[in-house]
Protein: Glucose-6-phosphate isomerase
Organism: Entomospira culicis
Amino acid sequence: MIRYQNLDQTKGFSQLKELAIPSVVEHFTKENLESQSIRAGADLTFNYAGKGINQALLSALQALADEQQVIDKYELLLSGEMMNTGEKRKVLHHLTRAQQAGEVLFHNENLRHFYQQQQKRFSDFANKVHTGEILGSTGKKITTVVQVGIGGSDLGPRALYLALQNLYLSKLEAKFISNVDPDDAAIIIDSCDLERTLFILVSKSGTTQETLANRNFVLEAAAKQQILNFIPNKHMVCVTSQTSPLAKDDSYLVSFFIDDFIGGRYSSTSAVGGVVLSLAFGSDVFDELLEGAADADAHARHRDIAQNAALMDALIGLYERNIKGYPSTAILPYSQALSRFPAHLQQLDMESNGKSVNRDAQLISYSTGPTIFGEPGTNGQHSFYQLLHQGTDIIPLQFIGFSRSQCAVDYDFEGSTSQTKLNANLAAQISAFVLGKSEPSNLNKNFAGGRPASLLYAPQLSARTLGALLAHYENKVMFQGFLWNLNSFDQEGVQLGKVLANEILSNKADATIMHLFGLLEG
Amino acid sequence: MIRYQNLDQTKGFSQLKELAIPSVVEHFTKENLESQSIRAGADLTFNYAGKGINQALLSALQALADEQQVIDKYELLLSGEMMNTGEKRKVLHHLTRAQQAGEVLFHNENLRHFYQQQQKRFSDFANKVHTGEILGSTGKKITTVVQVGIGGSDLGPRALYLALQNLYLSKLEAKFISNVDPDDAAIIIDSCDLERTLFILVSKSGTTQETLANRNFVLEAAAKQQILNFIPNKHMVCVTSQTSPLAKDDSYLVSFFIDDFIGGRYSSTSAVGGVVLSLAFGSDVFDELLEGAADADAHARHRDIAQNAALMDALIGLYERNIKGYPSTAILPYSQALSRFPAHLQQLDMESNGKSVNRDAQLISYSTGPTIFGEPGTNGQHSFYQLLHQGTDIIPLQFIGFSRSQCAVDYDFEGSTSQTKLNANLAAQISAFVLGKSEPSNLNKNFAGGRPASLLYAPQLSARTLGALLAHYENKVMFQGFLWNLNSFDQEGVQLGKVLANEILSNKADATIMHLFGLLEG
C-alpha cells in the first residue's frame, strides 16, 4: 500500500531532526573517500565524503527513504501510474530511453513502442539528411539545423549539444532560437544560409507564444530574402504532440511526436532533444546517450541508498535544505563543455520542486527546492567562489569532473598539462571548502571550512556519461519530490504571467499594469 | 570626521528593525510607479514601485545612509583614499571613465592622466589595426581578436561585447579563452585563422595560472601549425600592470597598462575591457560606454537617496537581506544581448561583498552579500520562474528592460511585434510577482504575490546605456559594502584554493587531498 504523507508527518524526519549534526571537516578522510562512493550509471561515480555524513545519519536517511516509499513510487511511476497529480498525467520520460518496468498501455497503445517508433522515425530522417537523400527545397544539402523552442525545448537540448560538440564530429551545426526578444531570432537567421538550413519547431502544446512568434519570424525573414523556388515550410520540421494545432498543419516537411506524459524539462531524451542531437551528431551518438541514461535509471531502482547515487544525492540535499537550512546549491562542472548544464539543472530542479503545496494541492510548511546556480570551474573560482568560501551563508556544492579532456589537445606548462591543472584545482577547491584553513591572526585570510561538497566524476564526458549525468539529476529531483510529497511534474507557477501578458497585449490588464507597460514601451 | 562602524552598531539599523514592514502588494500603485522612479545615469531609469517601500522606510533608509556616511566614503574613494584596506590600495576604477573628484596623485603621478594616456594608446592602436597600418606578422589584415583572461579579465568584457555586438558594426570579431580546461583554448584556437588573429593577454599580476597556461597553449598550438614566417608573439598584446613579469617581456607586439588600484571585477572600463572593445567596435563606441558610466557615477554622488538610484538600490537590497532575511537576488534582463550580464554581476557582487569580516578584518554577525543569479527573460519564465512565483523562499527580483530592440528587425504576429510581446511579458511578470492572484479553491494555482521586484529601463541598450548600467551596479555594490562596513575591493577567499592547487601539482598536499586528486586523475 502506497502512502503519501508530508515530510513533517514522517517519523523519519523527526528522527533526523534529533540527530547530532556531524562535522563536515572530520568526515573528509581517505577512508570516506573510498567508502562514500557510489556508481551512478555508465562510468559515473558519486562521492559524498565531503558532505559530513556519518553512520547514524545514513541510517536515518535510509529510514526516511523507506518510510516515504520513494523506490515504490519510482516503480509506480515507471509502471505508468498517474504521478503528475495536478494535471492527471503519467510521467514517462524514463520510457524514452529504456523500459525499466513493465509495459505501459494507454488507450490500448503501448507507449514504449510509441516512443521507440518516433525515435526510429527521427533516426531515419537524420540519416537521410546526412546522406543527402533529403535536401533543401532548392536542391542544396542541409548543413545547419536550428532548434526553435523555449524552456525545456531549449535548455536541455542546448546544454547536451554543447557538451558533445567537442568530442563527436558534427554532421550538422546546430543553433538555437528561444527568446521572444526579436534580436535572438534576427541574429541567428542572419547567420544562416537558409537554403541549407533546417528549422526544428518544438512545442508540445503547439501554442507556446514565443515559439509561434519565432516560427512566424523565420517565415517572414525567409520571405524577405526572395530566394528563387525556396519553400520555407519545407525547411521546417515539428516536434509536438499529436493533438496540437501544429500537428494538424501538414505544410511542414515532417512532424515527430511526443505526448503529455513527457514534461518539458524531462524531455531531452525524447524527440525534443533527439531530433536535433541525431541531426547534429548522428543517431548512434544519441543512442549512446540513451544507454547512459537508462543505466542511471536502473541504478536508481536500488532500495539500499548506499547503492543508489541519485537517491543518496537527493537525501543529502534534503538534509542540507531541511535540517541544516541552506537555501541554495551551486553546480560546479570542471568542464567548459558543460557551460550550460547548470542552466538546464536550474530549470530541472527549480521548476520541478519550487512548490509550496503538496501533490494534493495542500499547503506545506517546510522548505522545498533550493535556488540552483553555477558556472564552470575554474572560471567560477575567479568569480563568485569568494562568497562560497567566506560569505555569511553556507552554500552546498556539487562538483563534476573528468579525468580526460574531450579534444585531446593539451600541452605541458611548468610541469603539468592544462587538464591536470584543471583537476588539481577541482581537488584543491573541494579540500579548501571542506577543510578550510584557520588564520586567527588575520581573519580576512581565515577559511572556516565546513562547506559541504560532493563530486560526480568519470573518465571522460562521452555521450554515454552525459546520458547518465542527465538522468542522475532527473532522478535526484524526482526523489526529492517524493520525499517532500510534491508533484514535481507540473508548473502552475508559470501560468499567471502568461495570462497577464495576453491581457496586456489585448489592452485588458488593469490600469496599474498597463501603466507599467506604458513606461517600458516609452 | 569619517566613522567606520558595523551595521549592527548603527542607530539607523536599530530603527529600521523596529519599523513595520510595508506590504509589497499595496504599494504597487500607479502613483508609486510615477513617484518611485530615479534617473540612474545616461537614459537609464530605476523604478522601485514593486519593492514595497513607504515613506517611513525611505526616511529610515536615508538616515542609515547618512549615518554610515556612504556619500562621504564615495567621495573619499574618488579622492584617492586607500579604501581597499586589506591590500592597502586606492580604488580608482571611476577614474578610468572620468574624474568625479579632484586629482589623484600617487608617487607624483597623476593617475587620471595615466589611465587617459593608456586609453589613448589603445585607441590609437585599435585604429591602426582597423586601417591596416598594423598587420599580422605575415602581412595579413587582422580580422579576429581573442581575449585570454579569467574572472574580471573575462566576464565583464565578454558580457559587454555580447551586449553591443548586435547594435554596432563589428570591426573585428572577438572571442574569449578563459578556462584552464584545455578544450576551451583548443576549440577557440582551432576556429581562428592565426595569421589574421590578435591575442590579448590580460592579467594584472602577470601570474594568473590559467592565463599563463593559456598563453603557452596559444604559442604551442601556433608553433604546431608551422606557418611560414609567422611570429606568434607579434600576434599578442598584453594588458598588465607595469610591475608584472609580463610587462618585462618585450617580445609582445605592445603592452597596455593598468595598476593595482583597478580591481579585476571593476576593470571593464580600463584597458582590461577597453582594448578588446575598442578593437571590436572602434574607440568611439568605447568612449560612449565610458560617458554613460561617468554619468551614472555622477548621479551616484547625490546625498538624497530619492535622487541616487545606485544608493536606493543598495539600501533596498540591504533591507531585503538584513530585515526581510532573503538570501538570494535574481537579475532578469529582458534582452538576449545581456545573456552574460548576470554572470558578470554575479562576480561583481558575490566577490565584492561575500565576506564575513569587516574592513578591519573583524568578524561581523549579520548577513552580507546575497547569492546572485539570473538568465534573460522570457527564457527564464519557462525555467526557474516557477520557484520564484510559488517556491517556499522569497527571492527579490531585479528586472532590466528596453523599449526598442537592437537589430531593428521585427515582425507583427497576432497583432503585436516580438519586442512588444517581450515587454508585455516583462510588465506581466513584475505584476504577477508583486500582486499575485488568489485561488483559494485550488492552492496549486494560487500566487501569494508579495515578491518584490524593481526595474531598470531605458529606450535602447546602447553603449552609453550599457555604461550606465554597468556603473550603476558597481556603485550599488560599493554602497552596500560601505553600509555593511566591508572592504568590497579584495578577495582573500580565492587564495586558499590557489595554494592547495599548487601543493597538489608539486605533490606536496596532504594524503587525503592527494587521494582525492588521484580519484579524479583516474
User: Anything to note?
Assistant: The longest strand of chain B covers residues 44-50. Chain B has a mean pLDDT of 96. Chain B touches chain A through 152 residues (CB under 8 Å). The first helix of chain B runs from residue 11 to 18.
